[in-house]
Amino acid sequence: MKTSSSGISWHGGFSLVEVTLALGIAAFTLLAVFGLMPVGMNATYSSGEQTMAADLATAIASDLQNTPPSGTAVTSQIFKISIPVTGGTLNTLYFDEAGVAATTLDSVKHRYRAEIYLRRPSTTSALATVGELCISWPATRPSANAQGALRVPIALDRNYTP
User: Are 105 and 114 in contact (CB under 8 A)?
Assistant: First the structure.
């Protein structure tokens, strides 16, 4: 125990000013951390949506590339996407969270919209079938008004024969 020059004794410890300052610093720090929580959660959600869209785009592109060429219009094997011999086609598919495709929209069940536009200039030229694949979410909105979208160019070499 220490005594002051006036004879008053005191015990070691923190003063009220020190405790108040420490609480203020802690409150400021916690406020900053909790303020950043929604930003982090939105980034995590957005990242999950983009990952699923990339997975769907990969599956659709793989399906289109693995469809054998033909002299007539064909449809892809898995998603039944129409591949034109000449001219262009627009195919729209809807996917749920598990990646199951449908051709008609169920606004409760479907989360992603896939719009596949394919164009073949002519049957006489050796040009590839080209197009664009757009995965957007939510499925109830058109891709122009979507919350998020992934656009992928597609080129299919349909000129060879197996």
Answer: no
